[in-house]
Amino acid sequence: MSKRKLPNYRSKQKILYIDNTPAATLIDYGDQYWDEQAFDDALDFYAKAGHTSGIEKLSAAAMEKGDVFLYQRASRALHREITPADWRKIAGRAVELEKITFAKRALEKIDDPAVKNDVEAMIKTKEAEKRT
What we know:
The chain is mainly alpha-helical. Helices cover 76% and strands 0% of the residues.
């Protein structure tokens, strides 16, 4: 992989949406953003390149980090519906990492009452632990 300087916002927009940038170049930028842990930017480049394995890697990282918003974006880029089990899993991970806002966002997306109750209980328990 060649090391390029990461583009500023305007250059990034030009690379992604104006220029006819080759997929290999987009993937290279995505990899560099990945290395810098700039996951949202990496997703922009991987999605534009149609780089499924890069998006899958980001989806897994989002789940591990309890990042509901990145997980949603990656799922959308993969044209994958997020299941109630997925929402439950990422909400649980977010609670473990004390990312309560992310957990609450996942909670909003859960339709299954049993799963919703389970996640609500996890959030309440974690919030109670933080108060003591």
